Amino acid sequence: MKASDYRNPERLADVMALIQVLALAEDTRRSEKGLGDDLQRYPRSAKSWTELAEDHSEFFRVRAREARGNKDDYRVSLIARAVLPKGENDYREPLSSDLLGKLLDIAINLHDRDKARRDRWWALLPIAAAIIAGLFAIAAAVLKR
């Protein structure tokens, strides 16, 4: 995961929306068009849902459909659901509400950690200002002599 994944304020909402669709939808995999149809919008923090999923490999898996000869046709799936055992008719059940809630909590936690990491330097700002002010005071005293 890149450090700037959550820099866009809309990123968390997009990730949570994609998790929900892929966790609860009937099919375990979705194309870009299918995701757009289900979510009824484009992502606000990426060029496409596929790009968003590729940026968050901790939750999603993206596979090209090269077997059909179209390298631009990708399928996005939720890793947690893709590893569930298949049931009747080669079908995976939607995730339980407990597991879905845990995935959403993890996304929020990752967002908060990224934000805290980016905001950590703000704590050093008053110290830097005091050091600079001290240097100017010393310089002024030296120049006054």
Protein model, in words:
Helices cover 52% and strands 8% of the residues. It is built from 6 helices and 3 strands, in the order αβααββααα. The chain has helices at residues 11-24, 32-39, 49-55, 79-82, 97-119, 125-144, and strands at 29-30, 60-64, 74-78. A 3-stranded antiparallel sheet has the order 1-3-2. The radius of gyration is 23 Å and the shape is elongated. The protein starts with 10 loop residues before the first helix and ends with a helix. The model has no long low-confidence stretch (mean pLDDT 86).
Quick tags:
145 residues, elongated, mainly alpha, 6 helices, 8% strand
Short characterization:
The protein has helices at 11-24, 32-39, 49-55, 79-82, 97-119, 125-144, and strands spanning 29-30, 60-64, 74-78. It is mainly alpha-helical.
Quaternary structure of the protein: single chain
Average pLDDT confidence is 86
Q: In percent terms, what proportion of residues is strand?
A: 5-15%
H/E series: HEHHEEHHH
- Report the biggest beta sheet as strand number plus sense, adding barrel if it closes: 3 strands, antiparallel
Helix content, binned percent = 40-55%
Radius of gyration: 23 Å
**How many strand elements?**
3
Topology:
Elements: H1 11-24, E1 29-30, H2 32-39, H3 49-55, E2 60-64, E3 74-78, H4 79-82, H5 97-119, H6 125-144
Antiparallel strand pairs: 1-3, 2-3
Helix pairs in contact: 1-5
